[in-house]
Amino acid sequence: MVNNLSRGKTVVDLTGQEVRQSGPLELGLGKRKKGIKQQMNPWWECVWELQDGIGQRQTVVRILNATGEEIIQQSSKTDASILQEKLGSLNLRWQEVCKQLAERKKRLEEQKNILSEFQRDVNEFVLWLEEADNVANIPLEPGNEQQLKQKLEQVKLLAEELPLRQGILKQLNETGGTVLVSAPISPEEQDKLENKLKQTNLQWIKVRH
């Protein structure tokens, strides 16, 4: 069966084999897609490829099934049975592929959510460190007992938070070790996030002392 499209030619047989010959329009779209992908981070590129690939192959599968059913209606009982079995096998394989791709997309979504939560938690911890640093660096006015009392109270509250904050930082370091290896981000973003986590640890040491 040959399906001539304005964007090129697709040759498909009943075993699911496909040979594409790109036309001018498809070549233009291919260049445009390539340019878009180059601007994406790895996560979006994976999602793009999943969605794009499924859409293209779904059309092929529909054509195969429709054409196969037409041939079955015109075939002998024996040939129809063989073809029906081939179509059934093809559809089962297609469903399995769709299932695997859906699971992969789900994992990518989960990784993206973990990354977002990690970045949010790091930012919140950095804000707390900045607040603690600001309190520690408040200049005292000689003889101003009220100011001294307020600062001592603030320092006391921050000191009470230290054990909790230490636990949070420990969790951030553990999560960061996993996220920085598996997160769907570019090397540049990975380096930036890793450096931010290192600076956070250095700032923590400064605040504690």
TrEMBL record:
InterPro entries: Spectrin/alpha-actinin, Spectrin_repeat. GO terms for molecular function: actin binding. It comes from the Eukaryota. The keyword Repeat applies. Keywords: Actin-binding, Coiled coil, Repeat. Residues 91-121 form a coiled coil. The keyword Repeat applies. This is Dystrophin-partial.
